[in-house]
Amino acid sequence: MTVTSPAESAPPGGPGGELAELQPPRLMLDAPVLRACGLSRRYGRVTALQDVDVTLYPREVLGIVGESGSGKSSLLRLLNLEETPQGGSYHLNVPGAQGRDLLTLTRFERRELRVRHIGIVYQNPHLGLRMEHSSSGNVAERLVLAGERSFAALRQAGRVSLAASEFPLERLDDPPRELSGGMQQRVQLAKAIALKPALLLLDEPTTGLDVSVQALVLDTLRRVRRELGVAMVIVSHDLGVIRTLADRVMVMRGGQVVEVGLVDQVLDDPLHPYTQQLVHAKL
Ligand SMILES: Nc1ncnc2c1ncn2[C@@H]1O[C@H](COP(=O)(O)OP(=O)(O)OP(=O)(O)O)[C@@H](O)[C@H]1O
């Protein structure tokens, strides 16, 4: 399906409307940093994603919500170039990839692009971290993949990135298996932002953390967004998290997008019956 962004559907003018009200949100005035069209993914007989379009603007945060099994994590894996869809196209507006459909790249080219331009934080830290290596070593690994070889530079870059994710620096040498869930998410975040990616993907980054830790991690994500200006896609079943972080939200059901729009618009005045059900169930 084709989802038209509010920017694209906004009328150029109208009776009685203030100009400011008619202009698309500032974020949407730039060229998109990410544009994926018609993504489809099947696993055997299960259709995880069907004809999904995603557009993301620079510095924008797009939330993805939907019931369990609606395809949210599958979509993030495709956007992270971990898996290949059976159909669709995917463009990122980053150096070396302009005008190229990323789905046509070789495995090596995709890996390069992922290392340099895409960061991801998984709900399960075991997917994103080596639990036995030191925390700073986990962050350094990404820099090594990008070609950095100097031990001093790796150590310093790891420290800077962990500090940016508000990780306690006295625990730099501790392995993630000895850290709390909130700290493990901070190590994942530090690794994800180490090379200042254009795109940060977050899969339920606060799920499973206790409420006070969740709030701290959300604060850090907001600050990272503000300071790095990175565009983010965040999957969460928690509409409070989406409201706190996201500019727009995309609602998924059965592998398809049923509604997309500005967060307040969709969560306060949902149009699709499924979104209405989702919002009311969470109230
Ligand atoms: N590797 C896989 N092999 C087989 N089926 C899969 C695989 N990954 C996902 N699926 C199926 O694809 C569908 C979408 O799964 P996905 O994990 O993307 O949903 P989700 O919205 O992220 O769910 P949740 O909120 O529970 O994490 C489900 O039916 C799931 O069983």
UniProtKB/TrEMBL annotation:
Disordered: annotated span: 1-22
Keyword ATP-binding applies: yes
Gene3D superfamilies: P-loop containing nucleotide triphosphate hydrolases
Gene Ontology terms describing biological process: organic phosphonate catabolic process
Entry-linked Pfam families: ABC_tran
GO MF entry, a single one: ATP binding
Organism annotation: Deinococcus koreensis
CDD domains documented for this protein: ABC_NikE_OppD_transporters
Entry protein name: Phosphonate C-P lyase system protein PhnK
Domain ABC transporter: 34-279
Gene that this polypeptide is encoded by: phnK
Keyword Transit peptide annotated: no
InterPro entries linked to this entry: AAA+_ATPase, ABC_transporter-like_ATP-bd, ABC_transporter-like_CS, P-loop_NTPase, PhnK
Keywords on record: ATP-binding, Lyase, Nucleotide-binding
Bias type Low complexity, positions: 1-11
